[in-house]
Amino acid sequence: MSQRTRAPAMSTEDRRAAIIEATLPLLAEHGMKVTTGQIAKAAGIAEGTVFRVFADKQELIQACVLKVMSPEEAPRYLETLPDDLELSERLSRVGHEMVAGMRRVGALMHALMATGYKPDRSGGQFHRSRQESLRISIDALTAVFEPEAASLRLPPRRAAQMFLGVIFSSQFTRQMTGRDDPHAAAEEGDEVTIDDLIDVFVHGVVKEETKRKRGKR
Fold this sequence. Notes:
Helix content is 63%, strand content 0%. By secondary structure, the chain is mostly helical. The termini are far apart.
């Protein structure tokens, strides 16, 4: 009879990473009320294993927040966009991915704050992570604009910075039209989509025929 062999044990770092990944969706659902029992079940481990790699639940939650704020979470998909897409289509794909990511982080932080979470801002770690994430995002976006440099009115890096501002502004337009309030009755045609914002960013808000008429004067 062949002897059954055990799978090799995870390293501490790999175990930490696995527990964090299992915890993130639970935090978005339960906030600070999540239990280590729920976390252990989601991670497929014994509850005691959680405390072998984290001092307590607070340290685990802090690690989860740092994970979503980490520069490593900057959009890697920017590097894998097909080269044969039109700029507007590439920006649309990027925009939707970035907005989806922002909403996931927003939902997580809202759930935590609503259940009593107070971030540890000592040492400026959050600020540094946020600034580094922005820098990495701008670098990656600059690479999206660079192939179109000859047709741009701005240098690619400035275009990337402005585009990132458009992405951030999309969250405010949702608030203005009541899209973040499930009880608000939105009027027909009042929703501003990310594709609307990108279209105006690429083509401007003035119609082409109007531009041509003005150019003839």
